[in-house]
Amino acid sequence: MVRENWNREELIVAFNLYCKIPFGKITSRNPEIINLAKIIGRTPSAVALKLVNFARFDPELQKRNIAGMSHGSKSEGEIWNEFHGNWSELAFESEMLLARFKGEAIENSAKINLENLPKDGKEREAIIKVRINQNFFRSAILASYDNKCCVTGISIPELLVSSHIVPWSKDEKNRLNLHNGLCLNLLHDKAFDRGLMTITKDYKIKLSSAITSHKHDEAIEKFFLPYDNRSIYLPNKFLPDKDFLTYHYENIFIKNKSLN
Questions:
Q1: CB 185 within 8 A of CB 152
Q2: Tens of pLDDT along 41-52?
Q3: Closest listed residue to residue 84, CA positions, set 66, 106, 64, 58
């Protein structure tokens, strides 16, 4: 029996999964792909192929000759553009649809922390949406960097952070934009957040004089100085946007230097 064409809802949850697993693990044997196939009534092979097809819209993957099928459906491009046009709304919509396919409450499906939430009302709904979107962002950023810190290569999930390049509070539109994220360990995330280090447009690590002036400090010598001017480990998809990196350099890194 030939299945009918993919509908919009199926494509949205497929792109959700595309964001959340490393590109190299998109195979029909991946348990996450098998699970999604089951709940939407597709075969694992069909889901895996659909995820690979999304890659043809990623400029960085194209440069590596990873392009999926050359003649995929027009609808795949439409979903790609929908997400890139409004990450926050599409990320949340994709989680809502995924919960519906599973037949679960979204709080359970998205596995969010329900502590300290109001019992009901719009405030509870707003907080749940924020937490769901934050979970999406974290999962997608870690997957893009193959669950490794882009500075050190540390691969212990409990020590990793999905760090915003342009801070959450400064750009509402790009809070969930996956090109606005870096996977960092907790220490270097804090340094990046405070402008003690930055990532240049050519993806090199640059340390502030507030750090390099402590070059005789054993901890600084061990945990920071070896990485100065080194290239970061690049993600397998969703390369950091150079405009966002420029913003961090000019508005956070340089500003921090002027204060020291």
A1: yes
A2: 999 999 999 999
A3: 58
